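Consider the tokenized backbone below.
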């Protein structure tokens, strides 16, 4: 079982869209996939039309009161399962913060799934903040996938997130955590800046940046309002094709990594800082 935290401390970058649709595309490929909504706002939950369900979040499992297996729900898609979020998760941050093992509560919660290899992949849709829930997501994950919007300030937000990865590793809470990849989202082919940002991020992060770029489309934006992922809402559109391509690239990378004895070295924060400080300004469209 491989656990992937999909996170970015900045909101509005396509994080939940990527979590929901990548999970759906992996399940479509026959990978037994669990998506966990860690965001109290519950946007991933709404994307599956489950916003009316209460008492099914990770609130009690994180406190050790019930097993996570009691909170896993099936979805309309074969091989895709889901743990929804609700407002109770906002309060659990305060309660977890008082515990001596506050960094590893989620890792302990997921251990039962690791022990019996219930799923091939567990995707964590982390909240857009640097709080307890996001930190727990990174402490429980094998790797982090960062969606970045194709905009002028794309690189700046990476500095904080990479520093957080290093802090998690150095604290001993999760020394196996890696920066698994960066996904460029909301690409607009009509603007010059989108292409410039993609080129610039690839110059600094090389193979960590996925070749697949997610376009900005109306269908992707409206799918959650219908309680459906893009594979259900517009299965033949460019958004669905992009996430299917992302899933294939994701699987190729992980199958290749499984046969590679060397782990990908972590990104050093100073390298990211040099990249953001020395870069030439991106020309505005």
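A designed sequence for it:
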């Amino acid at each position: 079982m491989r656990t992937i935290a999909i996170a970015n401390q900045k909101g509005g970058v396509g994080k939940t869209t990527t979590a929901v649709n990548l999970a759906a595309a992996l399940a479509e490929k026959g990978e037994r996939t669990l998506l966990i909504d860690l965001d109290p706002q519950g946007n991933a939950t709404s994307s599956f039309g489950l916003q009316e369900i209460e008492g099914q979040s990770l609130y009690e499992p994180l406190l050790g009161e019930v097993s996570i297996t009691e909170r896993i729900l099936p979805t309309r898609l074969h091989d895709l399962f889901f743990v929804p979020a609700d407002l109770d998760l906002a309060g659990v941050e305060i309660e977890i913060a008082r515990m001596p093992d506050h960094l590893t509560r989620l890792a302990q919660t997921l251990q039962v799934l690791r022990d019996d290899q219930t799923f091939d992949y567990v995707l964590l849709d982390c909240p857009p903040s640097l709080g307890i829930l996001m930190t727990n997501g990174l402490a429980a994950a094998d790797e982090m996938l960062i969606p970045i919007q194709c905009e002028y300030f794309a690189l700046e937000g990476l500095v904080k997130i990479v520093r957080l990865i290093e802090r998690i590793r150095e604290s001993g809470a999760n020394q196996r955590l890696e920066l698994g990849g960066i996904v460029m989202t909301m690409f607009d082919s009509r603007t010059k800046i989108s292409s410039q940002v993609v080129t610039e991020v690839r110059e600094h992060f090389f193979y960590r940046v996925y070749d697949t770029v997610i376009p900005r489309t109306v269908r992707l934006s409206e799918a959650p309002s219908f309680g459906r992922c893009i594979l259900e809402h517009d299965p033949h559109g460019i958004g669905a094709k992009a996430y299917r391509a992302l899933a294939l690239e994701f699987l190729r990378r992980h199958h290749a990594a499984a046969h590679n004895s060397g782990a990908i070295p972590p990104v050093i924060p100073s390298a990211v800082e040099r990249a953001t400080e020395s870069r030439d300004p991106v020309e505005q469209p």
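The domain at 2-278 is CATH 3.40.50.300 (Rossmann fold).
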